[in-house]
UniProtKB/TrEMBL annotation:
Cofactor: FMN
Protein name listed in UniProt: tRNA-dihydrouridine synthase
Region Disordered: start-end pairs: 324-343
Xref: InterPro entries: Aldolase_TIM, DUS-like_FMN-bd, DUS_fam, tRNA_hU_synthase_CS
Sequence similarity: Belongs to the dus family.
Length: 343
């Protein structure tokens, strides 16, 4: 267990912030499966937060089950910090993270994400201002930088710690590196040696073996899991048992039951126009569990309504997971709920 301020990470397994993926429906599925020590939102625009309605915003909607929850900020100007933090306190955030690693061109052009790593003085001002406005656990999430520059990375990390972040998450890739490249977990080990705050390792963890290898190379205080979360929602519980020795039951849900849980949560909590895109995004990863999963992914991808996507998914599961579908009474979502929530 990791304890920072009054937040317990038990176990120190964190859900990575992922735009379009780490919303309430995925988070509750993960809570059902168990083993997540800290949930995250996707990145949230600090500028827009103060005017968002948390009960309807697809980025903010949250059930009482989703605890503890860290809110990730996309912030570019120090004056955005006060109003954004006031909003996060109102929403009941358990932690705040600053996105300094996102390489997406749109985010970089807006002056956020990984572009900030090239502007340490701007980051210093941002972190200082965020820290000044909150007593919550504060973290930052970075990549290794533009190039492998040990001194530059060290100075940047020490600056963040000096400005009062409580832990640092390192995605072990350079700014321009694709996901197909093996992450440089050994570089997280260097960061760990420089800092006296906890360091969380991120990137490329899809199995217990990956987690063991990453911990061995990095000596990290915890792990953050991204794409494996929608692919294998049970992975956190497996890691909690195998790595951290927690006595967690194996999730009893079949794959169709997990898909059903996710789809039902989308129907219950999201406005019609916000459901289909999120179902497609999740299916892209979840389909990897089946040898013919590309058929599930492409048929859902080609759907023009939520009901059509569900019907195609049902057809896929009936053929590829008949026992799982039988347990579900052959339906993923109750027809009444589907028609009530028709899009
Ligand atoms: C679809 C997608 C969206 C992402 N959105 C964010 C984001 O909003 N904020 C962020 O810091 N990182 C974001 N990331 C990066 C992840 O948090 C994580 O660092 C990355 O996926 C590597 O971890 P993994 O190999 O476990 O997936 C995103 C990644 C993906 C695949």
């Amino acid at each position: 267990m990791l304890e920072i301020r009054d937040l317990k990470f038990d176990p120190p397994l964190l859900l990575a912030p992922m735009a379009g993926l780490t919303h309430s429906a995925l988070r509750t599925l993960l809570c059902e499966c168990g083993g997540v020590g800290l949930l995250y939102t996707e990145m949230l625009s600090a500028r827009r937060l103060p005017v968002e309605n948390p009960t309807v915003s697809p980025w903010l909607v949250r059930t009482g089950q989703e605890n503890p929850l860290c809110y990730q900020l996309f912030i570019t100007r120090p004056e955005e910090a006060g109003p954004a933090l006031e909003a996060l306190h109102r929403f009941g955030a358990d932690g705040v993270d600053i996105n300094l690693g996102c390489p997406a061109p749109r985010v970089r052009q807006a002056g956020g994400g990984s572009s900030l790593m090239a502007a340490p003085d701007r980051v210093r001002a941002l972190v200082r201002e965020v820290r000044r406005h909150t007593e919550l656990v504060l973290s930052a999430k970075i990549r290794l930088g533009e190039t492998l520059d040990e001194r530059g990375l060290r100075d940047f990390c020490l600056m963040l710690a000096g400005e009062g972040i409580d832990y640092l998450t390192v995605h072990a890739r350079l700014r321009g590196e694709q996901f197909c490249r093996k992450p440089r977990w050994e570089w997280i080990g260097r960061v760990k040696e420089w800092l006296d705050i906890p360091v969380i390792a991120n990137g490329g963890i899809f199995s217990v073996e990956d987690a063991r290898a990453c911990l061995e190379l990095s000596g990290a205080d915890g792990l953050m899991i991204g794409r494996a979360a929608p692919q294998k929602p049970w992975l956190f519980a497996e890691l909690a048992r195998e790595i951290y020795g927690l006595d967690l039951p194996r999730p009893a849900m079949t794959l169709p039951a997990m898909y059903s849980h996710f789809a039902t949560a989308l129907l219950e909590r999201f406005r019609p126009e916000r459901r289909l895109g999120r179902l497609k995004e999740f299916t892209h990863y979840f389909a990897l569990n089946y040898s013919f999963g590309h058929l599930l992914a492409t048929s859902v991808q080609a759907s023009t309504s939520f009901a059509e996507a569900i019907s195609r998914a049902e057809q896929f599961f009936r053929q590829n997971d008949p026992r799982g579908m039988e347990e579900m009474g052959e339906r993923l979502v109750s027809p009444e709920l589907l028609s009530e929530a028709a899009d």
